[in-house]
Design goal:
Layout (H helix, E strand, L loop, with lengths): L10 E8 L4 H9 L4 E8 L6 E3 L6 E3 L1 H11 L5 E4 L2 H7 L3 H13 L4 E4 H12 L4 E5 L5 H13 L6 E4 L11 H4 L10 H11 L6 E4 L10 H8 L3 E3 H13 L15
Helix pairs in contact: 3-6, 5-10
Length: 262
């Protein structure tokens, strides 16, 4: 007799995540279908994880990113995703394509490469969402939020509104940059997030997009879709969906939104 061992014989995915985060892996493992596995490489570099050259036509990968790609190359992966929304937002228009090209040079042509931002755009299109209500993590400061809105506009997305989650009275006096180091990443509560999104989502929105792979939220996707009667897309959900597509795996995953049933 054999027992379940999470062996990814149908597909194995590589994911670059922030070095101090636990949310991305937890959410992926919650959503993963049988016989598919995810393997993380941690990145400690500041955003963006790859820097533009002087001509802004190519990027230089951070040391952690390049090293992780070298390790991933020998793991017979089906797809690799750069799971960091902030890098795309700060990197700006064209950054995602440039970093995909740079990673592909290391990983080789047989491994599909994508980024969380590209996955979110593909998920919006597949879900028929044109005017999403954007939801940002509380640790996104004003500058990052503005870059995020500009990034969306540069890619033809016209948000119906946006919300930066309020993590509660114990955190309101804490500067955005200090929230994660002080432990907010491990003290996130999804029930207040659900209530804030439900209350703030405008009637003009035809869907919700929750950005940030370290932002705990997939546990409320199904409830939000039921109560708002609109698609809800999250960073980790979108990247898992895209990687499954790239690998040719088409399971119907229940409990985490209609995107994973497309």
């Amino acid at each position: 007799m054999t027992a379940k061992d999470n062996w990814g014989w149908k597909a194995r995915f590589g994911m670059f995540i922030v070095s101090s985060e636990a949310v991305p892996e937890a959410e992926w493992w919650a959503m993963l279908p049988p016989d598919v596995s995810v393997h993380a490489a941690r990145v400690a570099a500041p955003a963006p994880w790859a820097s533009w050259n002087a001509e802004r036509n190519a990027v230089q990968l951070s040391a952690d990113l390049a090293r992780g790609a070298e390790h991933f190359r020998g793991m017979r992966l089906s797809a690799v995703v750069l799971g960091h929304s902030s890098s795309s937002l700060v990197g700006g228009a064209g950054w995602d394509a440039a970093v995909v090209a740079a990673l592909s040079e290391i990983l080789g042509p047989e491994i599909a490469v994508t980024t969380n931002a590209l996955d979110c755009f593909a998920a919006l299109e597949a879900s028929g969402v044109e005017r999403p209500f954007l939801v940002f993590p509380p640790w996104f400061n004003d500058a990052t939020l503005e870059k995020g809105l500009a990034y969306m506009e540069a890619h033809g997305i016209a948000p119906s509104g946006h919300l930066r989650h309020d993590p509660g009275p114990g955190w309101r006096e804490v500067p955005c940059a200090e929230m994660y180091p002080r432990g907010l990443g491990f003290e996130q509560q999804i029930e207040p997030l659900y209530a804030q999104i439900r209350a703030a989502c405008p009637k003009a929105a035809d869907g919700v997009l929750i950005l940030g792979s370290g932002f705990r939220c997939v546990g409320i996707v199904e409830a939000l879709e039921r109560d708002l009667a609109r698609p809800v897309i999250t960073a980790n959900q979108a990247s898992l969906w895209q990687c499954l597509k790239r690998a040719g795996v088409k399971p119907e995953i229940e409990g985490y939104g209609r995107l994973l049933r497309l």
